[in-house]
Amino acid sequence: MEDNIIVLIVEDDKYIVSFVTIYLNDEGYRIIVAGTGKEAISLFYANNPDIILLDLGLPDVDGLKLIKQIRERSNVPIIVVSAREEEEEKIKALDCGADDYMTKPFHIGELLARMRVAQRKLNRITNPDNVDSFTCENLTVDYSRGLVYVDNKEVHLTPMEFRLLKLLIANRGKVLTHNFLLNQIWGYSETADAKNLRVFMASLRRKIERDPANPRFILTQIGIGYRFVDE
Ligand code: CA
Fold this sequence. Notes:
The structure is a single chain. The chain has eight helices and twelve strands. It has helices at residues 14-26, 37-47, 63-71, 87-95, 108-126, 159-170, 178-186, 194-208; strands at 6-10, 30-34, 51-55, 78-82, 100-103, 133-136, 139-142, 147-150, 153-155, 176-177, 218-221, 225-228. A five-stranded parallel beta sheet has the order 2-1-3-4-5, with helices on both faces. Helix 2 (37-47) runs parallel beside helix 3. The protein is globular and about 55 Å long. Calcium ion (CA) binds at residues 12-13, 55, 57-58. Calcium ion (CA) is lined by residues 12-13, 55, 57-58.
């Protein structure tokens, strides 16, 4: 199966392209390379890739514009690669619909781990979740009855906490930015801010994590947002 996975690498740095290509070929991925945003769009339409690895600093097009354009047509996993000084861009990229990010220079092991997460998302697109319940280790969420169990004991979540948990699980593996979560949970209300979110997250973690200080399920991406584990 794995040799069928097509990865579109959008990157103008030839060194990175050749280094990534060697490793991903070894892993059985099929690689297509675009050096510009223009090329990326035409290769995207022509090849319908399964995963996109996107450098934000392209010579011709703004990477964010590219993400929006792709998202109009497809839910394909997009992993953004950015330079250190593009920290802000990274958050914007996630808000535009990118799934994950890496900062240059990255380790090949890190890339392969992100690729595995992207593949699981891919599998979920073709085989959607059982909508009735979700189980991960000692955590079970019964969607139809709106109940949550930890170690087989029911825990009581507020409606807001339940929505937050549902949203995190539905997007597991993906980094959800503070902005995204605030908009999804509170809408565009003025009172919603990152501090509110931290309070809700702390309370949710106390209820579902065995050790809230070292969370197993909801991981913090410092300065960016949160991610529900997908492993
Ligand atoms: Ca670049």
